[in-house]
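## retry 2 of 3
previous attempt timed out at serialization; input unchanged, resubmitting
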Amino acid sequence: MKKKIVILTLVFSALTLSAQEVIWKFTYDIGIPLGETKEFTDQVSWRGLALDFDRMVGDHFAVGMGFSWSTFLEKESDSYYERDNALLHGTQVRYINTIPLLARFSWVQNLLGSGATVMGTMGVGTLWQETRREIGTVAFVGDYWQFALAPEVGMTFPIGYQTSLAAKIRYMHGFETSDGPPLQYLGIGLGLAW
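## retry succeeded, writing output
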């Protein structure tokens, strides 16, 4: 794990230090669960943040990295859960915490005369997912690393000197592993770019 963090830090530093033009984005993200994620927790996530940076490597192409965090939570009173020949009853709380770490490849188009930009991005990388099901004092926890893809579309709108309003829609897909469930959600982000 330490080796991965060191490699990510070196790549991050190389991209930002040699940057002719780097676009930073910090957004507040809302997550809408899809697929099997929706079966585990059906509630919209109001807890999410993302930090993305993209370095322009041509007139219309950028590469970069993205880091984000989202937490999904659902509470269900008077529920039953069966596991290992035991039937548990009580208030059930289900959590999913996820932290994607993605390399980003973007197509960027400036909208003539407005200063606004449109971006189409494909994120490729990994994500850490923790699932947690609590019933009373009993907790069942899963901890998984998964391969992830994250297509995204977004726009920036200038609002001041070198600052823009950023909006995006991202579909996050963490692929199923031998011991972990797939993760799927739609993220809607709003924040600032500079």
